[in-house]
Design a protein that fits this description.
Helix content: 25-40%
Distance between the termini: 67 Å
CATH topology of the largest domain: D-Maltodextrin-Binding Protein, domain 2
Strand content: 15-25%
Largest sheet: 5 strands, mixed
Number of helices: 10
CATH architecture of the largest domain: 3-Layer(aba) Sandwich
CATH superfamily of the largest domain: Periplasmic binding protein-like II
Strand order of the largest sheet: 5-1-6-13-7
Structural class: alpha/beta
Oligomer: single chain
Number of domains: 2
Number of strands: 13
Length: 261
């Protein structure tokens, strides 16, 4: 074989490798992930602009498992489903419970965690439990447009249920004695109670989830009909559960399995 023949083969091989590399790059899935950024320890926007939390780490692990290039977009909770529908991002990973009402607007993956709701109140409160009777006549703070607000409005009909745009705002009001109790996910409340501001309060008790209101857990919301993306995400959820990555992330934040039974 002549020297020129060697050169031609080498160049042809290099060109093929480059074209295959370009094709692989072109085929890499690109996803925009929507999250709230105001719901620690699940998702929170730090002062330096970085996103942290359980939802964020799970999203990164799923993207790695799917070999997808992912970008995060923060969005106020009240507008997060409309923003998904408008194409601002491709999936919502923001502790969104799977409910019948939301299923009318979006599709969901399987759950990726399921933790119970709870009630917190000031340490000197006379509230003894979480029933309608226990909270009669009390002012209860809860983030609006959530399963917790739906439950509070349906259950605590003898109470004043106050809705807030974010969890941070109801926390500020109870810290300043403007509320008698608050309702949220127990993990969110426990995280807050461990802070200086949350030192005011205590967990009164957990609420037995109502599946019709709270749903089977938190899932990843996607636009209606995007079954291929749902399947890929479900496979990735199963994979990180099986390979230990989920447990690694779980143990970074919790002392129990947040996936639930």
């Amino acid at each position: 074989m002549t020297f020129s023949r060697h050169i031609k083969l080498a160049l042809a091989g290099a060109a093929l490798a480059l074209s295959m590399g370009a094709a692989g790059a072109a085929e890499m899935m690109k996803l925009k992930i929507g999250t709230e950024g105001a719901y620690p320890p699940f998702n929170n926007l730090e002062a330096d602009g970085s996103l942290v939390g359980f939802d964020v780490d799970i999203a990164k692990a799923l993207c790695e498992e799917m070999q997808a290039e992912c970008e995060f977009v923060t969005q106020d909770w009240d507008g997060i489903i409309p923003a998904l529908q408008a194409g601002k991002f491709d999936a919502i990973i923001a502790s969104m419970s799977i409910t019948e009402e939301r299923l009318k607007q979006v599709d969901f993956t399987n759950k990726y965690y399921n933790t119970p709701p709870a009630i917190a109140a000031p340490k000197d409160s006379d509230i003894k439990g979480v029933t309608k009777e226990d909270l009669a006549g009390k002012a209860i703070g809860v983030q609006g447009s959530t399963t917790h607000s739906n439950y509070a409005e349906a259950t605590y009909t003898d109470s004043e249920v106050k809705l807030y745009p974010t969890a941070d705002e109801y926390k500020l009001d109870i810290e300043n004695s403007r509320l008698d109790a608050v309702n949220d996910d127990i993990i969110v409340l426990q995280e807050w109670l461990s802070t200086e501001g949350g030192a005011c309060c205590k967990i009164v008790g957990t609420i037995t989830p109502d599946v019709k209101i709270h749903g089977p857990g938190a899932g990843i919301a996607i636009r209606k009909g995007e079954t291929e993306l749902a399947e890929k995400l479900n496979k990735a959820i199963d994979a990180i559960r099986a390979n230990g990555k989920y447990k690694e992330i779980n143990d970074k934040y919790f002392t129990f399995d947040a996936y639930g039974g």
